Amino acid sequence: MGIKSFQGKRDTSRNNKIEDQILVADYMTSKLITFKAEDSLDHVITMLIKNKISGGPVVNDKNELIGIISETDCIKHISESKYYNMPSDNNNIVGKYMVTDVETIDKNMNIFDAAFKFLVSKRRRFPVVDEKGVLIGQLSQKDVLKAALKVKGNTWK
Description:
The protein has 157 residues and is α+β, with helices and mostly antiparallel strands. The chain has one domain (24-154): Roll (CBS-domain). Helix content is 36%, strand content 14%. It has six helices and four strands; from the N terminus they run H-H-E-E-H-H-H-E-E-H. It has helices at residues 24-27, 41-51, 71-82, 94-97, 111-121, 141-154, and strands spanning 55-59, 65-70, 125-129, 135-140. A two-stranded antiparallel sheet has the order 1-2. Helix 5 (111-121) runs antiparallel to helix 6. The chain is elongated, with a radius of gyration of 21 Å. The protein starts with 23 loop residues before the first helix and ends with a helix.
């Protein structure tokens, strides 16, 4: 008597085609609030509060990514100057407080590989740049959650 397969008949229609993957490009935000290195931190703080965001990319005149500014970076500024009631000077600009060593993500990455990258890096957002370094979008943890809900609605039982 032969061994029977308990997996049943395999579905050969899918074959892991690339178009079946859910990519970063499908869920990234492309309309971003960006900042310039010469912007004041007071402007950044105002924009973060007004738009209910926790940070944003910093770009140059060619829209190339040069850094990220976040609430934490702004809090560093507050703790260094406002806490001690020091007067603001012209050095309170984004370029002084932004993070310049920025990890980016590829628009063609699978969304679930991106989710793993969030877990490993403990970041809240990843800028998406093209091959020339031009900012084309941003993927947040919330975007990954939206993708997971869509997949659950389509394939999970």
